[in-house]
Amino acid sequence: MNITRFIYNIYFKRRGKSLKKYNTHAENIQRTVLRRLVNKAKDTQWGKEHSYSAVDSYEDFVKNVGVNTYEELKGYIQQMREGKKDILWPGTVRWYAKSSGTTNDKSKFIPVSYEGLKKIHYAGPRDCLYFYFNINPKSRLFSGKSLILGGSHAPNLNTPNSLVGDLSAILIENVPKAVNLTRVPEKEIALLCDFEEKRDKIARAAIHENITNISGVPSWMLSVLNRVLEITGEKTLDKIWPNLEVFFHGGVAFTPYREQYKSIITHSGMHYMETYNASEGFFGVQNDLNDPAMMLMIDYQVFYEFCPMDNLDDNGYPVDPAKIIPLWKVEPGVNYAMLITTSCGLWRYLIGDTVKFTQKNPYKFVITGRTKHFINAFGEELIVDNAEKGIQQACIATGALVKDYTAAPIFMDANAKCRHQWMIEFAKMPANVEEFGLILDRSLQAINSDYEAKRHKDITLQPLEIVVAKEGLFDEWLKGKGKLGGQHKIPRLSNSRKYIEELLDLNAQ
Predict the structure, then answer these.
(1) Is the terminal CB of the chain with fewer CB neighbours within 10 Å at N or C?
(2) Contact by Cβ (8 Å): 142, 182
(3) Residues 477-487: pLDDT tens digits?
(4) Where in the chain is CATH 3.30.300?
(5) What is the rounded distance in angstroms from the CA atom of residue 261 to the CA atom of residue 208?
(6) Residues of the chain with CATH 3.40.50
(7) Any residues with CB less than 8 A from the CB of 41 and at least 6 apart, and which?
(8) Structure confidence at residue 414 as a pLDDT band (50, 70, 90)
(9) What is the CATH code for 374-507?
(10) Cα(493)–Cα(374) distance, rounded to whole angstroms?
């Protein structure tokens, strides 16, 4: 008997009936989600302040609640972390997912309620498996074990009433015990803080297991898989895990890593499925391997709104809140910033991601980027504000003056090495460019906790590289594009190498 098909028929097959409603009842589903969230929170501090008892519709909700970023919710979240109940969500919330910070804070602490765990974060993997089993009906996924990468807790950020960790660590800590029997590594290894130690122990724990599926961020997973190859001396994973059939990936774009995975997993039966999961929630799953778009999961405890990108100011905040629309009014092909309302206490929360719908009924989308310039090739979430502060510290320390700069990632090579490449035009050169780079790197780690984690012991993200630009390079580049002067600006950070490659070519002339 195929145990995987047996489990599918018992635990997953019935889900199909609910998912069919995505095709015809999306507006009703989303209105119902919002109504339940508002009714549940009407007696909280937030609910009382925003008159939730008088909210009967989406239109009422919009009138009573403005758009929020982390800055607006930070004070409420701090009260929750101190143990106060009924603040943003009923009862007390024990867990908080640590995410990269804002302009004013090194880290954000995203509430993860019990309802959010059950109805959002765990609902996503369930549906991911449902879609996969429909894509691959001959799957034998449950005949072996799952290799799942996770983060760690952050005890230095804990309070007597709240526990902090990466979202993946929170999920591992709270997952049903039965699930731990089918996963590698054991929880004690999975939650280690030192990634170098963790990577080695995960690799050694997994080598002799029958691994049928892997899950995690592509960059971190590739580092672990390369360690497996180092230990075994094999060139590919095919002999080590002959039954490996799928990689469930998310967190950063998979495109830069696809060929590297194909080089170490060569058999034709391997599948790759993208998911859209974040500290704030689980939002999308790829349900067709021939279509890169993901299905928006609309019956979790998440209500979605969207703001056209041309309605955002330079700080990524809506200029005219009246132009924000619910899901049922979006149009394919338009670039939107996404807002969410969830059972974790996030209300009309501007998450910072941008999406573009490829179709409606059911709603499918692709992630197009962030609302601000950024680098997030490896999960470091470096924003322009971080870069500006890091440059400032390096200039102060070395006496340098920077005229212009841009930065982009250099993606991993076959040895899982990667780094950020900075092109800097100095108005006043530092005495030592290498020292400038070291100070910039240390400053970025002090400012951004995600960058700090990815730089830890040079395991995945190597020290940054500085290329000195010749005098007038950026002006020459802008002039060539007809954008010299006026309001045109140099793109400070980019997840793509398009701009920096053009500048490198020009710099070499």
Answers:
(1) N
(2) yes
(3) 988 887 665 55
(4) 374-507
(5) 20
(6) 118-285
(7) 47, 52, 88, 89, 90, 345
(8) low
(9) 3.30.300
(10) 5
